[in-house]
Amino acid sequence: MKILVIGATGLIGRNVTSKLVNAGHHVIAGSRSTGIDIITGEGLPEALEGTEVVIDLSNSTSPEDELSNNFFRTAGQNLARMEKAAGVKHHLILSIVGTDLGQHIGYLRAKKVQEDLIKESGIPYTIIRATQFHEHITTLIAVQSQDKEVHISTVDYQPIAAEDVAAFIAATALEAPVNSTIDIAGPERASMTAFVERYLAITGEDKVLVPNDDNKYMFFDIEKSGLVPAGDFVSGKISFDEWIENNIQHLHP
Q: Which residue ranges does the record assign to the NAD(P)-binding domain (predicted)?
């Protein structure tokens, strides 16, 4: 099967591409570095010729409201138009759990635009919304640290390993489109402070956790349960503690 992976050079994209190639599929790595530009459309018609599945893992270079909105709108319109002309049978998007609850955040409004464009295109689709990755924990701690203190909200948190996300995307891309949204999340739900506390304890990082009830993620105000699935979801297999143990040498040499 010929599959086009947009954003094939990113954390998830590299893994998805590798899994599909190893499974024997003809995978086109879609990125500007390979001559495929979803904003200008350059190289896209050629890449889509004979393609059955498109996996859209693209991301805006900036989370800023107008820039991210313009990116996802332009890319979504180009992909929908050219995929229809090419007869693509399945368009898969990676999105974010809580997108509907976070419409006061510009980046999530832009992701909703991306989702809605493919829903309205007539192309069979699957939207996978994932929670934050285990891999985001280091950025979370860095952004919310002040000297030796790390200020973390008690909001609900249910992170998932990037490996689990990639595996689910690769498998779902080969199945029939569901024409709906699937939530995926990690196997454990707790407060964000609980995850950060365990990370600091296991890695021995020299920081003091300072919990708060501000209901924030990074710089963004969110609902207390805005980062976790509200209903049914598919659970990842790799626990947070297992992920830390498997990556501790890289995380805290």
A: 7-173
Contact 251, 138 (CB under 8 A): yes
Q: Could you tell me the two tokens for 93? A: 């998007």
All domains of the chain in start order, with CATH: 2-251 (3.40.50.720)
Task: For residue range 132-161, list pLDDT tens digits in order.
Answer: 999 999 999 999 998 899 999 999 999 999
Report how far apart, in Å, the C-alpha atoms of 77 and of each of 18, 28, 82, 155 are: 27, 20, 9, 35
DSSP 221-239: E--TTTTS-SS--EEPS--
Closest CA to 227 of 235, 215, 242: 215
3 state SS of 28: strand
The dihedral of CA 71, 77, 78, 83: what is its sign?
positive
Torsion of CA 229, 230, 234, 236, to 10 degrees: 30
- Which of these, 214, 200, 165, lies nearest to 19 by C-alpha position? 165
| Tally of residues, the chain | 253
pLDDT of residue 91: 98
**Nearest partner of 114 among 83, 69, 178, judged by Cα:** 69
pLDDT value for 64: 77
Q: What are phi and psi of 191, to 5 degrees?
A: -70, 155
pLDDT (tens digit per residue) in 42-67? 999 999 999 999 999 998 877 777 88
